[in-house]
Write a structure and sequence with these properties.
732 residues; alpha+beta; nine-stranded antiparallel sheet; eight-stranded parallel β-barrel; 13 helices; 37 strands; 18% helix; binds alpha-D-galactopyranose
Length: 732
Amino acid sequence: MAIQFNQQSKVFTLHTKNSTYQMQVDKFQYLLHLYYGSKIENQEMTYLLQYNDRGFSSNPAEAYKDRTYSLDILPQEYSVFGMGDYRESSLQVVNTDGSFDVQLKYVSHEIYKGKKGLQGLPATYGTEDEVETLVIHLEDEVTKVRVALQYSVFEQLDAITRSAVITNSGTGDMYLEKAMSCCIDFTNRNDFDYITFYGRHALERQMERTPIRHGKVSVESIRGCSSHQQNPFVILCDNDANEQNGECYGFSFVYSGNFKATVEVDQINQTRFVMGIHDTGFCYLLQREESFVAPEVIMVYSESGLGQMSRNYHTLIQNNLCRGKFKNTRRPILINNWEATYFDFTSEKLVSIAKDASELGIEMLVMDDGWFGVRNDDYSGLGDWFVNEDKIQGGLKKLVDEVNSYGMKFGIWFEPEMVNEDSELYRKHPEWCLKTPVREGNRSRFQYVLDMSREDVREYLYESITAILKQANIEYIKWDMNRHLANVYSSELPANRQGEVYHRYVLGLYDLLERLVTENPNVLFEGCSGGGGRFDAGMLYYTPQIWTSDNTDPVDRLFIQYGTSFCYPVSSMGAHVSAIPNHQTGRVTPLNTRGVVAMSGTFGYELDINKMTEEEKEVVKVQVETYKRNYDTINYGDYYRLTSPYGKERFVAWQFVSKDKKKSLVNFVLTKPEHNPPILHMKLQGLEPKKVYKVVGSEECYTGEALMKAGYRVKEQFGDYTALQVELEMCE
Ligand code: GLA
């Protein structure tokens, strides 16, 4: 039993393989957090609570003369604003009478095997053997605000998910001004490091690590999507935690809109972590008996470093978040025409790319932006989802049939959430975009954002996309989103509901995606937002892969993919080999290196293959074969970061090990070439110590133990950014 409740002491205990999470309903019926960390059996941690008079931390009415009882000090399971807890709140309401007070007390709970979905939202799922759920019902006796805190325990993966459902059971309307998903109070710690992933367009998820301090540190997005600038995944860990040692707590928000993740160290060195939808621009009207569902947070605990935490996330996301056929089916190696042609292409050009690509073992052609409406640059056409026959001569079916005739699948690009002013759609329905009535809206990439909260907008998009899918044998969709939200106002909602639009936008997006992915189970969806600007666990519920970055430079990708790997599996990271000099950085790197880096993701090409020399095409053939041969190890195996690109080592190295440990693929990129360099023995990980491994293509054999303890002797590389791959196979 992963979840236990002691009727006498009213203590809830959640156990995973290596962690324990505990809380207690106390004498006044408040739900207090007791402990989250390394597994402790047969002990209730109520003894950790300390009651002292802390001046200026007020006492709730029930405590009366007891000045030692304060909600400002005691660890809260779901912190509220208005009743004397001055730390970061999880819930903030405006009651029917205009007051802010909310006092949540335990009413009841339920425990069941399995896990239910979250209405309208993405969430992890699992069988009754994999996951167990606890729902704790809290209520404010006066206002009848109800909160159901949901905890699901994936015991084997050291993962606990949290979410909250807030219901207005009172007599009038109320407003939610903040409704976070997860709150944890660490009573005995102020010594964590906070690891976050910042970035910008074409340089997403750069790792940053800082010690926490008194006061608050937040990472957030108020851009209407999870954003390039900060990722909704953060880690709290020991100051000295590294890949293989130390306590780490990961928090991944299963949501693609505004978010906030705050760490606060309080006056007595306790640490509070709160994560959920950002409260800026958020004000949700709850009429009587209406509920608000706060999205899920996936927490993973590891006491053996960041590597294990990441591997647990990878397994959970692949098996219990991603859905559909493509979670276990080999995905095609694709070639995308964007960096090859940009907007300047015809069907003839696409077919010639497909033809050359098919001869090298590439399996799918993706037609990117520019095939629809009047779209010869990025100033017009978005919204007009019908084929531009000037470019696609003879229509889509003819093109797709021709591409198929070379044994190649066909994929297509959409940017459904957007509209250009210069489009038939905008001329017909200007009210369909997010825009305040009184002023001209902000343009970004010269486009406006469609109001995804509107059903008619979603219906139009559903019909248009479905009509395109019906025209031809389309097996992949790249779902792009190339600007952030501003002037967030829906012409369909009244004034007092405009604070709902950011969230309703995301719900609308999910609703449309849900419909399309369900009705098209054989179509592979890839998410995208100017590269990796909406790379989050929410999107992965609908699209099992996401274009990681518009930056295809393999050296920058070492950093981007490294940062991304802390939460997200390799099978989710779109990665392509592109031309040199690289279009984003101008850097020149060997083709081999571009291949090694791109095949640590959902592999593909994005260049004009017609322009490649015969010699280069031979290299591509070998890359394609290497990827296919190692597909299972890369995509379903365990991932080990051997070095950090931020470190001092000359090489950036990472390793894949198949689940049965029989195969491994080790990758090195030389980032700091040196003359007369020191010897490098790279310690590998995850192998079977007592087994012998053969280096494929050589006579070298070593025990797993030797490779892990003494290391693999890396053959010296010469020249900027050369790369090396070592394939290992266990000898029987
Ligand atoms: C975004 C995507 C690119 C490409 C362009 C097309 O930037 O990230 O891959 O599809 O849009 O406009």
